[in-house]
Design brief:
Length: about 900
């Protein structure tokens, strides 16, 4: 019972009770009134009992409804919680009230954390304006809105998502909340990108199709191939410049085509295969058969249409209809005439049967054409296509026997490559010569002339049938040559009959010519497909056999192909490389340069195709490579890049080794040049020293000669020998230093070494000491210094320590202003006056000081003898007087 009815019953019972109470208060008690009151009370009680029963029933129904509601609420909660898509419930301004697990997973946050957060918090800044616009439309009365935005999870990469938002209204129509469906469309975006790439490949394929292909959006042409333009007598460029392709169709068909188009784009039913009349550029009307479908083109829906010119077929159908109409008229006329004469009736019936046979033959022919067209689209492989086409024509035309002869050996022979019919399978591979000896066969004549031929009553014409037809007992034969677009006969279809020797007629020959043309087109299509397959295999074989790494980068900069050499170069497997950014394999600076060049290439700018870089291998190695980059730009499509990377590690190592060797050769050359210069200087110095030595020797000998009367010859020769040995010793020391600068202190130490020990037995022990100071001088004055030091030390050893067991000689070299000094000091008795005046050694010292050093030698007594040789520094620079 409805609640309103129940309320009314309760109200009626309440009023009745009130009336009874009022009457009970005003009336005098009587038995009749008691009985009447009881009757009213009984009625009220009945009402109350009925109301209680109704309330109980409604209580049960309410409990059941509450149970169902609770189950539905739990089911909704489970559906909401475990739905594969993200669901949110928010207030009208997008503040989250509830979030299911999928939404929390997408946003990488807990469900409890999401509650109270605004949805806009997770929307990328670039999409927020559009997002707020959607919310504004919902708050303004829109029931449902859809949009695509980029959502950034808490710790993840941005995710493209589709949002479907539904407004929740209260009884007054106010928006009290929003329900959100969030769907990750990353895979959809990738699929769309793959679809666009597929469309680019499709464009390349259909450009060479013999059927007209057009892609348009609201009849604005986006793409047409040459076959489509040729059907209408235009160029592709002229058609693409049109604002609408509706002008290519007859005016009476335009409204129908426009309605089809709008229905397709809105997802409504519309024919996908229809016929319409078109208008050529020259104004001629043509009939077109069109097949259409909805595709995605450049990110939006568009219509792809495939068009075939069926004007000839339409003309044939029109002629057939006219003939049929004429036939019907004739039948009617003959039917009236049959009422008058039985003979005329029989004649008319016979004529009708012949016409019906012709009509059936024409119908079979049209059916054969349609079947051939259908089979031609079923496969592009010649091995599959040829038997299907042969059998389709044979069965559609009612032929009992058929074989397909393939012309080989430049037209010298034909081979059976397909067959149908009983006993024909064994003839596959049979060869039929087409030379002079077999020129009379109908097969040879048809192939040589390129014209369809038929031959009835074969058994009465020996030599006319090919060997296979003779073996099968064929009584009539129809030969249909297949002429390639180059004009060359590539094959021939042979159809025969085992029973009717008059099976074929001129009509069969004409229909066969049309069917043969269809078969030829199908075979040419399969041939083009085979060429494409071979080119693909050759391309794959070439790239896989190359030593250089080859990879292809799409317009997004990601690798879509890599050969085996790329795997060997980088160490990555091919599946690890595909769809990765190509810049992942280069360092950041080079990656930026390559990305900059790729962007320039996409804009059509001229970019150098060669680049040297280092590829980072999987093991962390840096492999030097030489990159050659070529743009890939299918017509009307976006650009990719083909990159060939050649490992130049060996070349780099060779270049480094060559540079190292060049440096070594340069160093050796410079060393040789220095050695040559030094040797030249040494040779010059040696010559100079030899002359000086000879001059010194001559001077020594002159001094000894002048003093020959003072000593014996043996003493003179011994003294000369000692001095010559000193000169030789000095020369050896200078030669050992390559006549470079020498420490004078060390030189003198080596010169006078052993003089004290060579004085003979019983001689005093003499210590020769040297000052710590060093003096480095060029070699020019050293010979004179050597002789002077030798004589001074030798004289001190001989004369300074007579009668003593020990002695000490101090040798010092140094500088005083613009002079060098050599000082030999002893602690002996001093040199006698007669020795200083008349000794040969001291005369040599004086001579060398004066001539070679341009200085002087002074003798002083200071606790012993001090011999002091002073000479100017200029002597060292210009070599003295030598």
């Amino acid at each position: 019972m409805p609640i309103d009815a129940f309320d009314r019953q309760i109200e009626v019972a309440r009023r009745q009770l009130a009336q009874i109470r009022q009457r009970a208060n005003t009336l005098q008690p009587s038995p009749e009134l008691g009985r009447e009151a009881l009757a009213h009370l009984a009625d009220a009680l009945d009402y109350l009992q009925a109301a209680v029963a109704e309330i109980s029933l409604q209580h049960k129904e309410l409990a059941a409804a509450r149970h169902v509601l609770e189950a539905e609420r739990q089911r909704y909660r489970e559906l909401f919680e475990f739905a594969p898509d993200g669901y949110l419930v928010t207030d009208p301004f997008g503040l989250i009230r509830e979030a299911n697990r999928s939404a929390a997973h997408l946003l990488q946050l807990s469900q409890s954390y999401l509650v109270g957060k605004p949805v806009s918090l997770f929307i990328e800044a670039a999409d927020r304006q559009a997002f707020w616009a959607v919310l504004a439309r919902l708050q303004s009365g829109a029931v449902r809105q859809e949009c695509e935005v980029t959502v950034r999870p808490r710790n993840g990469a941005p995710i493209p998502m589709e949002l479907r938002i539904t407004a929740v209204h209260d009884g007054a129509g106010r928006v009290v909340g929003l329900r959100w469906l969030m769907r990750d469309i990353s895979a959809q975006r990738q699929t769309e990108a793959a679809l666009r790439a597929s469309e680019a490949r499709f464009r390349n394929l259909v450009e060479g199709s013999i059927q007209g292909v057009i892609i348009h959006r609201y009849f604005k042409p986006l793409f047409v191939n040459r076959a489509y333009a040729a059907i209408f007598g235009y160029t592709p460029e002229e058609l693409l410049a049109l604002e609408s392709t509706l002008v290519l169709f007859a005016p009476e068909a335009r409204a129908r085509l426009q309605a089809y188009h709008e229905a397709r784009l809105h997802g409504e039913p519309a024919p996908t295969h229809y016929e319409a009349q078109g208008l050529r550029k020259d104004g001629v009307r043509i009939w077109l058969e069109t097949r259409v479908r909805v595709i995605e083109w450049d990110g939006a829906l568009a219509i792809q249409g495939t068009v075939v010119d069926i004007t000839a077929r339409k003309q044939a159908e029109a002629a057939l209809r006219r003939a049929h109409a004429e036939l019907e008229q004739q039948v009617q006329e003959r039917t009236a005439a049959l009422m008058h004469t039985n003979v005329e009736l029989r004649a008319e019936i016979a004529e009708r049967r012949r016409a019906e046979a012709a009509l059936a033959a024409g119908t079979r022919f049209l059916k054969a054409q349609a079947e051939v067209a259908r089979v031609a689209l079923s496969s592009l492989h010649p091995g599959v296509l040829w038997p299907r086409l042969l059998e389709t024509i044979g069965r559609a035309q009612g032929y009992a026997y058929g074989v397909l002869w393939r012309v080989v050996d430049d037209g010298a022979a034909a081979v059976v490559v397909a067959s149908f019919g009983p006993r024909t399978a064994s003839h596959l591979g049979v060869r039929q010569a087409l030379g002079e000896a077999d020129a009379d066969t109908v097969l040879a004549q048809a192939i040589r002339s390129g014209q369809p031929l038929f031959c009835n009553r074969l058994q009465e014409q020996p030599g006319r049938a090919p060997m296979s037809a003779q073996a099968l007992g064929v009584k009539a034969l129809l030969i249909l040559p297949l002429i390639h677009r180059t004009g060359r006969v590539i094959a021939a279809m042979a159809f025969g009959d085992y029973d009717d020797p008059e099976r074929f007629s001129e009509e069969d020959r004409m229909q066969g010519a049309v069917l043969a043309s269809q078969v030829t087109q199908a075979l040419e299509n399969s041939e083009l497909f085979g060429q494409v397959q071979r080119l693909q295999e050759q391309y794959r074989a070439v790239t896989e056999s190359m030593r250089d790494a080859v990879y292809i980068v799409n317009e997004a900069g990601r690798i879509v192909f890599a050969n085996a050499a790329f795997e060997q170069l980088t160490g990555y497997r091919r599946e690890e490389v595909l769809n990765r950014p190509s810049t992942d394999f280069f360092d950041s600076d080079l990656a930026l340069l390559m990305e900059h060049q790729r962007q320039r290439a996409l804009r059509g700018e001229c970019v150098s195709p060669h680049l040297e870089a280092e590829v980072m291998g999987r093991d962390g190695r840096r492999i030097p490579v030489e990159l050659a980059v070529a743009s890939l730009a299918p017509e009307g499509g976006k650009r990719g890049r083909l990159v060939v990377a050649r490992d130049v590690s060996a070349r780099k190592r060779a270049e480094a080794e060559s540079a190292r060797r060049n440096q070594e050769l340069l160093r050796l050359y410079e060393q040789v040049e220095r050695d040559r210069t030094m040797k030249a200087a040494l040779l010059k110095e040696l010559n100079h020293r030899v002359r000086n030595n000879l001059a010194v020797i001559v001077g020594l000998l002159e001094i000894e000669r002048e003093r020959a009367h003072l000593r014996t010859a043996d003493e003179a020769l011994s003294a000369c020998g000692a001095r010559l040995k000193a000169i030789a010793r000095a020369h050896d020391l200078l030669a050992a230093s390559a006549f470079a600068a020498v420490d004078l202190r060390a030189f003198l130490d080596a010169m006078v070494e052993g003089i004290g020990r060579a004085s003979g037995p019983g001689a005093p022990h003499i210590e020769i000491a040297y000052d710590e100071a060093s003096l480095w001088l060029p070699p020019k004055p050293y010979l004179a210094m050597a002789c002077i030091a030798h004589e001074l030390v030798l004289n001190a050893v001989k004369h300074a320590f007579r009668g003593r067991q020990r002695g000490r000689i101090q040798v010092r070299v140094g500088e005083e202003g613009e002079h060098y000094i050599l000082e030999v000091r002893d602690d002996g008795v001093g040199i006698p006056t007669e020795a200083a005046d008349s000794g040969a050694g001291l005369e040599i010292v004086a001579t060398l000081c004066r001539t070679d050093l341009r200085g002087e030698c002074q003798f002083l007594l200071d606790g012993g003898t001090v011999a002091r040789v002073i000479f100017p520094k200029a002597v060292v620079v210009d070599g003295g007087g030598v």
